[in-house]
Amino acid sequence: MNIAIGNDHAGTIYKFKIIKLLENKGIKVINFGTDTEDSMDFPDAIHPVAEAVERGNAEFGIILCGSGNGAAMTANHHQNIRAALCWNNELVALARQHNNANILSIPARFVSEKEALEFVEIFINTEFEGGRHERRINKIPIINC
User: Which residues of the chain are modeled with pLDDT < 50?
Assistant: First the structure.
């Protein structure tokens, strides 16, 4: 499995912890984020994550910024990307089960490191339920706009 990760300066510390967690599981991580805490523009790290997921170069994406909002908004501009901003375990599970989220957006300034790592575990280990949810998510992309 390949997972693309992208972050701005607010998510750098968590990103390194997440990469370690994933690599310890044998997951290849494609790092598009900054490796410093110097201020940078989050879209520069988020668009490449969304593109990697869109193209099939990564099964999932993980994105981090201060609030998680800007990162999720950026990723969701891409067709067939379903980035979910999550701040608790139940939201992460539901994002996968009901929405088949393919990118997890973590609000680095509002959750603990422990919570962020739990989110990643839940995200990669939770399956999409399909069924009635499949019909709904198929209505998300805008076609011929």
Answer: none
Q: Is residue 34 part of a domain?
A: yes
Give residue-wise pLDDT tens across range 20-33: 999 999 999 999 99
Burial classification of residue 35, based on how many CB atoms lie within 10 Å of its CB (0-12 exposed, 13-18 middle, 19 or more buried):
exposed
Q: How far apart are CA 72 and CA 50, in angstroms?
A: 10
Angle formed by the axes of helices 12-24 and 113-125, to 10°?
Answer: 40
Express each pLDDT in 126-145 by its tens digit.
999 888 899 888 888 776 55
User: 66 in helix, strand or coil?
Assistant: coil
Instruction: For residue 65, give the CATH number of its domain.
Output: 3.40.1400.10
Q: How many domains does the chain have?
A: 1
* 144 in a structural domain: no
d(CA 73, CA 83): 8
Quote the domain boundaries for residue 14. 2-137
- The confidence score (pLDDT) of residue 36 equals 96
Q: Assess if residue 14 is contained within a domain.
A: yes
Beta-bridge mates of residue 30: 4
Question: Where in the sequence numbering do the catalytic residues fall?
Answer: 65, 98
